[in-house]
Amino acid sequence: MEEQNQNSAQGGQAAPAGDAEKNKAMAIVGYIIPILFFIPLVTDAKNSPFAKFHANQQLNLLLGWVVVNVVGGILPVIGWFIILPLGTIFLIVVMIMGIIHASKGEMKELPVIGGFKLIS
Fold it and tell me: Around Cβ 36, how many Cβ atoms within 10 Å?
């Protein structure tokens, strides 16, 4: 109960008992290679709220990579020297945060991009 209160106070949700431990690997895989966000959705973890939550976060991360690279590649000078480098650093930090949250069994949203619910 105390752990759930700590997660709620920090903006995260507690994963169902045993669900996080069982599906940690599925939750981590899409952060390492964001294009693989769908892996938890097509394996045995498809009914896991923990795996679905992290698959959604991974899809948001993938879309963040697409936006940063498209906008940064199209805009001359500002995109090449500001948007691409800073966006890439931000997304790498967010990716590491996602891996840490998944490995701890937490369901915390990623900063800036994590609030979008694309997978229900």
Answer: 14
Q: The pTM is what?
A: 0.83
pLDDT per residue rounded down to tens, the chain (120 residues): 334 434 443 567 777 778 888 989 888 998 998 899 998 888 888 888 999 999 999 999 999 999 999 999 999 999 999 999 999 999 999 999 999 999 999 999 999 999 999 988
How far apart are the C-alpha atoms of 59 and 63, rounded to whole Å?
6
* Spatial separation of the C-alpha atoms in residues 26 and 36, rounded to whole Å: 10
Parse the chain into domains and list their residue ranges: 2-108
Tokens in use for 39? 């892996």
